[in-house]
Amino acid sequence: MDMCKVIVIGSKGVNALGLIRSLGERQFDVTFMSTYSKIESKYTKEYLKLPDNRKKWLALLQKYGQTSKEKVGMFPTDDDTAFWLDENYEALQEHFIVPHAEGKMRTLADKSVMNEIAKKAELSVPDFIKLSLAESERKNQYPIILKPYAGYAGSKGDISICHNDDEYINAVQILKKQGYKEVLLQQLLDDSEQEEIGLMGMSLKNGQVVIPGIIHKIRSYPTGKGSTSYARFSSDMSEINEEKIKKFVSATGYVGIFDIEMIKAYGKYWFIEINYRNGQYGYTPTAAGYNLPANWVYGMKNEKVEKCNNLQEIYYINEREDYRHVKEETINKKEWLKEFHAASAYGMYCPGDQRPFIRQYVKIPDRVIIKGKHLKSHIKDLLIKEEWNVAIRKRGDKFLWEKSEEAKKFTVLPNTIRYWAADPFIISAGGKEYLFFEMFDRIKSKGLIGYREISGNKIGKMKIAYEAERHLSFPYIFEYKNEYYMMPEYSEGKELFVLKAIHFPDKWEKIEGCMQGKRLVDSVLLSHEGENYLLTQDLKSGYLSEKISIFIRKGKEWVPHKQSPVVKSLANARLAGKIFFERNQLIRVAQDCQDGYGTKLHFNNILKLNEDEYEEEMFRTISVEDIIVDSKKRFFGIHTYNSDDCYEVIDLKNPDRIRIGNILNILWRIIGNLKK
């Protein structure tokens, strides 16, 4: 079979990694294209950074396609990218093999539309209606489920189950505040013996539909709402009416890889939805013996498609998400480790491609479960660690978040051999400006709080302001009654505390601690209309979390806000700096962590904030492509923004490479172990 180039395009995640590995194992030349950073798989032959503006994608892809002698296979990794490819199918098909539905994919993704097609294909479908929340008063037969009307229109975290009128009214109000206009109201399959399954397969231009087997979902995270975290794959499809499934797929007119969700309840299988892309457990059929992505390319090139013979029964585990059950003590760690080692397909881990796994987990020792063989690769990856730089600009009368051309130009402040800087805050004191930041010690592998003094056009050297026993970061600093205070992140110590300057800027003492036992990160205080608020994020069981909580000060206690958590989104939750008032707007800055830590900044206008209500609206996104720096370096991320009357400050993610400080860290750890 003739091999060709292929492109994996869209979001960065386990579904993208599964595609890259499946195609790479068949010796395809894999290019990863994304607005995010590179996936560090050994199978990624080329990486191209995509602009945030999708209007520029078409010209870029057409130029790329013209360099290839044969058509290039395309594999989207998220719904929006799949829809974009479909909408531009006519313009792309000359140079690319494109999954498509002839421009109808977005319509087909509407669950009311796909449910009607499924019913015509004689599949069992729970009773449903598409409901306008503006006209939501109705009589219901409970239990029911409210969910986004399409996969692209919301997340699984926004699903609500209602058993009575009160729960229904409350769910409708929450969905309205989340910005929903329409939802799907559906019969709840409430069988105690029910089972969720997944059917991942492919459809070809000749009408052939191939489904290698069934994904039996055992666990998800969060339970009941999240994505599959532990599952069993089986090629035994005797209980499924395979022909009806294939009839349904053919009726959609879709050509490409798909992922169908079904539920077994009351003795039969019910259709839930179809996703027009690779599922997050997409490497599982490959590990079982059938390479779906490779065979789709073969079929689209009119080459022989392999038969689904002698497939193994295997287990899949998304170790990152599933390990959260251990952290929450719902699963015994010993049993979880047995399941991990018994699995054959993973979210990140792969014996022959370990770099993505090590890059993700080397900073969290109790998650690093390496059974690999390649010592050289391990050593190399231990030496390559994340690093950031702080950048600064004189503000003038324009702000970065206004996307002014003059506000894009920043000066990158140099790091040292031992320290790098991130999480910058800026404050004026005694006629001077002071820049505070996380000052990461490469040797000790922990953060301190550092500062630089700014006098005129001169920016001083890095100096230590405060050090604790464990890692510190995000030095939220503020002035109150002519005194200076700081509330740094101390999540490793499971405490939130406030420091007071006894000699500004380099001597601080602890005056108040709260929230003991909680892993709170990137916390800020806000005084608004007579109330004092604390906005924070509890990591609980994971490095990233999708919820922002608010607490109100009542006496000496912090009491949860009635609507807390007020934001539920990996893309727009974690705080990225102080909350500030500017241009008659109260603005909250958030980090986009949807596809990794610190990829973009989102600016949100807080519309309502009182004891009973919280409402915000996103109005601006800033990515690293919006920044112009006085450096030859290329940066790959941004996750903090702050300003005062004189300056704006940000941080920028460096490209990954081996540095002397990382070598010193290894030596430090070896010496420490010898002393024990």
Task: Describe the structure in brief.
The protein has 676 residues and is of the alpha+beta class. 20% of the residues lie in helices and 37% in strands.
User: Mind telling me the CATH superfamily name of the largest domain?
Assistant: ATP-grasp fold, B domain
Overall pLDDT confidence: 87
* Share of helical residues: 10-25%
Total beta strand runs: 40
Would you tell me the structural class of the helices and strands?
Answer: alpha+beta
Estimate the global geometry from the Cα principal axes: globular
Give the distance, in angstroms, between the N- and C-terminal Cα atoms: 58 Å
Poorly predicted runs are: 363-378
Number of helices: 15
CATH topology call of the largest domain: D-amino Acid Aminotransferase, Chain A, domain 1
**The CATH C-level class name of the largest domain:** Alpha Beta
Sheet with most strands? 8 strands, mixed
* Percent of residues in beta strands: 35-45%
Number of domains: 3
Q: How many whole angstroms does the radius of gyration measure?
A: 26 Å
- Just name the CATH architecture of the largest domain: 2-Layer Sandwich
Secondary structure topology:
Blueprint: E1 5-9, H1 14-25, E2 29-34, E3 44-49, H2 57-65, E4 72-76, H3 79-87, H4 89-92, E5 96-97, H5 105-108, H6 111-120, E6 128-132, E7 144-148, E8 160-162, H7 165-177, E9 182-187, E10 195-203, E11 209-210, E12 214-221, E13 227-234, H8 242-252, E14 256-265, E15 268-275, H9 284-288, H10 292-300, E16 314-317, H11 319-327, H12 333-342, E17 345-346, H13 355-361, H14 375-383, E18 388-394, E19 409-412, E20 419-429, E21 432-441, E22 446-455, E23 458-459, E24 463-466, E25 473-480, E26 483-489, E27 496-503, E28 507-514, E29 520-528, E30 531-538, E31 547-554, E32 557-560, E33 567-568, E34 580-582, E35 585-592, E36 600-609, E37 614-623, E38 628-629, E39 638-643, E40 647-653, H15 660-675
Parallel strand pairs: 1-2, 1-4, 2-3, 4-5, 16-17, 19-38
Antiparallel strand pairs: 6-9, 7-8, 7-9, 10-11, 10-12, 10-14, 12-13, 13-16, 14-15, 18-19, 18-40, 20-21, 21-22, 22-23, 22-24, 25-26, 26-27, 27-28, 29-30, 30-31, 31-32, 31-33, 34-35, 35-36, 36-37, 39-40
